Amino acid sequence: VPELAARGVIQQLFPLHEQRILKRLMKSWVQAVCEAQPLDDICDYFGVKIAMYFAWLGFYTSAMVYPAVFGSILYTFTDSDQTSQDISCVVFAIFNVIWATLFLEEWKRRGAEFAYKWGTLDTPAESLEEPRPQFRGMKRISPVTSTEEFYYPPWKRLLFQSLVSLPVCLACLAIVFLLMLGCFQLQEFVLSVQELPRILRFLPKIILAVIVTACDELYKKVALWLNDMG
């Protein structure tokens, strides 16, 4: 074929579809309802890229059920007053942050499983890099690569995460939530007072913007400290 193409005998080459396989995919994939996608069959016929795309699409669609259900329940039980709606927005925002983090981490694992299964898993660059200078541990011979490496006992890391990282993160979230709730209460109070000048009605929003900026700078330092210690 390359020789004929070089001579100009063949101008284009297009593979024909296998109708038997397409009919099977039509029944098991396109026309199927509430059934898992035949990802292996899709990979065998269309290739790894197409199969990986539909694997991600199916995983994303399934993961969207959780915020949809939680948001519907939250909307149903939220009162019509401004304070309840503000609290619901904050709660839903926190839920979305947690959901997005779990979604990304789970997809990394799921995508690596598919890549390993279909023979396209590459060695991550992180595994070849030198450990960061702040890493603390004792030297040992790696049982996997047989090279010298720094080793930190997992139980010590888990202990620090449970007794320090988790309480600090929860305390930061609680502080942000209480500060935002206070700003919402202040805004509702300001709007209820008719005698105040118009410019003072923007005071709660200004205070909230300053708090968010200050907390952002503070939490960056806390995050760096937790990262170095963990």
UniProtKB/TrEMBL annotation:
Subcellular location: Membrane
GO molecular function terms listed in the Swiss-Prot or TrEMBL record: chloride channel activity
Membrane topology of this protein: Multi-pass membrane protein
UniProt keyword annotations, A-Z: Membrane, Transmembrane, Transmembrane helix
Taxonomic superkingdom: Eukaryota
UniProt key word DNA-binding: no
GO CC annotation: plasma membrane
Membrane keyword on record: yes
InterPro entries, A to Z: Anoctamin, Anoctamin_TM
A Pfam family it matches: Anoctamin
Main location class: membrane
Transmembrane regions: 53-75, 87-104, 158-181
Domain Anoctamin transmembrane as annotated: residue spans: 42-229
Family: Belongs to the anoctamin family.
Descriptive protein name: Anoctamin
Organism: Leucopsar rothschildi (Bali myna)
Gene that specifies this protein: Ano8_0
